Amino acid sequence: MKAFRLLIAWNIGLLAWVARAEDDVYLAPERFLEETFVEAAGVPAPQLVWLTKEAREQVRSILGHDYPSMRIRYWSAGARTAWILEEVGKTKPITMGLVVAGGRLERIKVLIYRESHGWEVKYPFFTDQFNGIGLDASGRLSRPIDGISGATLSVNALTKLGRLALFLDAFVRKAQAP
User: Fold this and answer.
1) I want to staple 151 with a disulfide (CB 3.0 to 4.6 A). Which of 64, 107, 118, 165 is the partner?
2) Alpha carbon 176 to chain centroid distance?
3) What are phi and psi of 143, to 5 degrees?
4) For residue 15, pLDDT beyond 80
5) How far is CA 59 from the centre of its chain?
6) Across residues 117-127, what is the average pLDDT?
């Protein structure tokens, strides 16, 4: 019986290792925050934005589904906010780091990619398209994003997260306004 339990524990550990091995971690979220706030006196403490009914409707409109949580963590220093968000490309979540400054995307970075296809979205030739982009009056990105053949779902996921970070930044700033 003891050998059977050890075999089960070993298999669970092996499955966990295999699952993690499939994740391509390009930049650890902690490192992304350190790089983002290198000029500040360190990474600020995380804050939470609660998704009100109005915010949940906007988030649903952007993502095409409900966000899996009622609150979202973010980091803020001065006029900059940093967001670590996830969206499913085809079947697995893509973890992104996004920085918003002055209502414009300052930096986006693919942190963890778990899909088998579409990994090209990690490269700067693609992510640099988002730099300086904001939201127009209809809540869409102010410039079109060029796609990548064979990576449409990943491109769509990143585009949604760009819109979501811009919306959340504006939502937080509106809530903090006197």
Assistant:
1) 118
2) 23
3) -135, 150
4) no
5) 13
6) 93
